[in-house]
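Incident log, structure service

09:12 report received: a user says their structure output differs between two submissions of the same chain.
09:20 pulled the input from the user's history:
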Amino acid sequence: MANFGYLSLIQIAGYAFPLITMPYLARVIGTEGFGRIAFANAVLVWLQTIADWGFTFTATRDVAQHRDDKEKVSEIFSNVFWARCLLSLIAGVFLLIAIAFVPVFRENAFILLISYLLIPGHIMFPDWFFQAIEKMKYTTILGLVFRLFFTIMVFVVIKEQGDYYWQPLLTTIGYIICGIITLYLILGKWGYKLYSPQIKPIVQSIQSSADVFLNNLMPNLYNSFSVLLLGFWGGAYANGIYDGGNKFSTLVHQLQLVMSRAFYPFLSRRADKHHMFEVINNSAALLMAFALFIFAPILVHVMLGPEFEESITVLRILSVSIFFLGLSNTYGTNYLIIYHHERDLRNMTLIASFIGMAVAVPLVMNFTYIGAALTIVISRGLLGTLSYMKAKQYIKQNSIR
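09:34 re-ran on a clean worker, output below:
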């Protein structure tokens, strides 16, 4: 419960501080600035997914199951750390190639390169490890301090539309500082070890997480892919309108992830308690989806201003996807992965993602940001429903046995 409390606290801060800066940023950098940041974030999602490679789930599960064996935990931590460093270099090469050959990437090269620096920051700040050993108090304190610093600096350095690049830069600086501190705690204070890189165990770690990686990568085919399409066909303005509505949806999604991540280590040890989580998480998802739909006009008018009026429709469409995300967390992440059915989840994610990518092209081309929002709902609806059906199938089989 302490783990859940700390995760909840950091999530409340994750809500409060962006809500403080959002009205200011919306009026200073405008829809175009929002759009450029959204485009960079859409690219970063692909690169971050490569660097993470599913370790957020598999390594968290493995450490949680061996947390009393410090030597084994050190081995897992070391392999994951070096594997992520290798994968981040590969992701960086992909980015440089895209900047060299794709005009829209070249036009946004500066903010793309700044945003890429978030990846080494994430590697240095292994919050998954603290979650696995259920010591979220430390990352919570660091997260609160970082968010306070970030909030203050937004008002200090962002003064005009061209200052939009400071938003990802400040976030990068915060992650790197927090990462230095957390590595000191893990390696210095608590005595875990970072072994020198060994090719064979690193490759084995990558191979063992491949199914979860594909499961994490595939949603990008409809999610960030839609934003990339908007960048090509609608420009920064269309991306800005979409991102205006998506920001609120993302904040609620992050709250869902907090609940999912807080229960994940516990359910990894006590999978028999899944029904309890099922009731809590599904009810919360339905309530949050309803609240977003009802309060969409108020949220957009108060937080973003009249320039983002069209974001109301985007937000209302995206609110429907919140319930389906809840189903994915309940039956996918917190059941199928825990019971080592990663391959089933991967296959279902492939189906939903390829369908999402297929419908994204005509929807975005014809309806721009509305089409992007519809793409998200269709894809998440498929994945949530398929996850529910497959998990219930396994639950029924286990009850018969």
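09:41 both user submissions now match this output. Likely a transient worker issue. Closing.
09:42 reviewer note: The longest helix spans residues 342-400. The two ends are 32 Å apart (CA to CA).
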